[in-house]
Amino acid sequence: MKDIINVLNSIVKDSPDSIAVRHIDDTLSYKELDELSDQLASLIQDSKKPVILYGHMSPFMVVGMIAGIKAGCGYVPIDTSVPNERTAMIIDKTEPEFIFDTSDETFEFKQGKVLTIEGVQNTSTPEVFESHMKPEDVVYTIFTSGSTGEPKGVQIQYTSLIEFAEWMKDLNQLGKGQEWLNQAPFSFDLSVMAIYPCLFTGGTLNLVDKDMIKKPKLLNDMLQKTPINVWVSTPSFIEMCLLLPTLDEKQYPSLKEFFFCGEILPHRTAKALVERFPSATIYNTYGPTEATVAVTSIQITPEILEKYSTLPVGQARPGTTLSTTDEGELIITGNSVSVGYLKNKEKTQEVFSTSEDTRSYRSGDRAKFEDDQWFIQGRIDFQIKMNGYRMELEEIETILRQSSWVREAVVVPIYKNGRVTQLIGAVVPTENVEDSAKLSHEIKSDLKSSLPEYMIPRKFVWMDQLPLTSNGKIDRKKIAEELN
Ligand code: AMP
Questions:
Q1: Are 48 and 157 found together in one domain?
Q2: 256 CB contacts (<8 Å, ≥6 apart)?
Q3: Which of 327, 363, 436, 474 has its Cβ near the most Cβ atoms within 10 Å?
């Protein structure tokens, strides 16, 4: 098994000045990435807890990741878009000894020693910092939505990450030294799909920030400045980018490979992309954070588009086996599976199991195997994806019920062409509604301190009481049918 640090060392030796990470004009060469991560690793090397990496799309976040590996403590990435209360909850759970703050924000960290970029730059290190991370150590912990209102920290072992990066390297048909695009914030594991396969092959990781996502002109500027070769994003993101008239093979010939993960790749999106980039290689991959980013893949060709109106997610990668329960729930087994949720025995026991040293994860996805391909057919629970973001409706409901304006609440996803386009909160308010807009505003501002923007329902409808099923449970189906 290859070690990420050994691979990086050989790239540093061969091409020290190649750019490893780029965000607009902010770049780090492989040599700088190596030296800075040595400096940070030397500061945190005695830490028994993962280092928190706080920031947005700073190249220094990647310095923090490599330093976390070198120091052997691993890392927990937190994007600055995460609301303060949620950030505090994650830090509380992690109990970090160190926080590497790469942001311009002024978050008040209540525990852990805060290290700054300048502090790291001014640290001297021994010439070569030996990597301390062992294969079975937890390399990163990424927090995802949890139904109880508390995010769950998915812990991934170093060996799982290496196995994943090796698999991606084999899928990547372009080989070494490519320009990669990373769309996902580092607190989502889709970013892992770009970071390590890119660094593993001496490529340049190009970071898309939140302003570029909001303003297509900025994104276009970035794409024009740096001819991207490999694209890693959610299907929702490419859909948005396909609105850019310059994004086709003629005008953007560098772009040769696409990797999608995180949500359904709609047939019409894939078709539009194949028409725009007929000679590119396009992969649909599937996987939950709990199984190291992705565990299946399929290359989307005109033949596949012709054959299937709903696209398959392909076949399992080496080292991972997939099966279904009698109810059709997909079970993922193998080295890709996480060692469990950080300090959350109950949730870990609910979905993870081990048999003869092999770990399995109950995905919550309904799936079928047909034609030698896996197909994902929706969820068995209340987890949804909207614009690539994973969320538990029950988490939003838990937080909603904590608002003093709310007696009871259910959150309903609104579907268009099979995808969630918005959330509506069906709320039984604690008081008579006199001013609907004002009440919506009050509830939304209560939610803002705990939930990320994308989890806040766009609209609310007011009810005297929530309808119940014959066995006395809230009749979500009825509410959903009415609102859809
Ligand atoms: P996350 O942990 O954020 O990566 O979300 C994982 C969930 O996203 C899976 O359990 C699926 O429900 C969904 N998902 C991921 N990739 C795909 C895909 N290619 N097709 C359909 N659903 C997907």
A1: yes
A2: 173, 174, 229, 230, 279, 280, 281
A3: 363
Q: Domain boundary at 370, 395, 417, which?
A: 370
**262 CB under 6 A from ligand 1?**
yes
CB distance 198 to 204 below 8 Å: yes
The answer, yes or no, to whether any atom of ligand 1 lies below 6 A from the CB of 144, is yes
Whether residues 57 and 175 fall in one domain: yes
Q: Whose CA is nearest to atom 4 of ligand 1?
A: 288
115 CB less than 6 Å from ligand 1? no
What interhelical angle do 158-171 and 4-14 show, nearest 10? 50
Residue 91 to residue 77: CA distance in whole angstroms: 10
- Residue 142: pLDDT above 80? yes
145 is in an annotated binding site: yes
| Mean pLDDT computed over 71-95 | 96
Range of the domain at 213: 4-370
pLDDT at 1 (0 to 100): 63
Percent of the chain with pLDDT over 70: 100
Does the global pTM surpass 0.90? yes
Q: Quick check: CB of 288 below 6 Å from ligand 1?
A: yes
pLDDT of residue 199: 97
Question: Is the CB of residue 390 below 6 angstroms from any atom belonging to ligand 1?
Answer: yes
pLDDT of residue 483: 87
- Is 245 flagged in the annotation as binding? no
**What is 406-441 written as a DSSP string?**
EEEEEEEEEEETTEEEEEEEEEEESS--S-HHHHHH
Is 211 among the annotated ligand-binding positions?
no
Q: Is 146 annotated as a binding residue?
A: no
| Same-domain status, 343 and 405 | no
409 and 401 in contact (C-beta within 8 Å)? Answer: yes
Atom of ligand 1 nearest to the CA of 284: 19
The string of pLDDT tens digits covering residues 420-474 is 999 999 999 998 889 999 999 999 999 998 999 999 999 999 999 899 877 777 8
